[in-house]
Design goal:
The chain has 62 residues and is an all-alpha fold. The chain contains two helices and no strands.
Length: 62
């Protein structure tokens, strides 16, 4: 049993200040799904990989 297993799924004990019901966790996860903290990272990695492969292909042909 981990350190927080006993409290990880306990409901938040305090009511919302606005009186609204809290959003279920699976709905909250959908909000952040399209978020990318490192915009352009995938493209940069693909570019570097193509450069690396091109460079290695040139080395192999010599």
């Amino acid at each position: 049993m981990g350190n927080y297993d006993d409290i990880i799924n306990v409901d938040y004990p305090f009511p919302s200040k606005s009186g609204k019901k809290r959003m279920p966790m699976d709905e909250r996860a959908k909000i952040f799904l399209p978020f990318s903290a490192l915009r352009g990272y995938d493209e940069a990695i693909e570019h570097k990989q193509a450069e690396y492969e091109s460079h290695n292909k040139d080395d192999d042909s010599e």
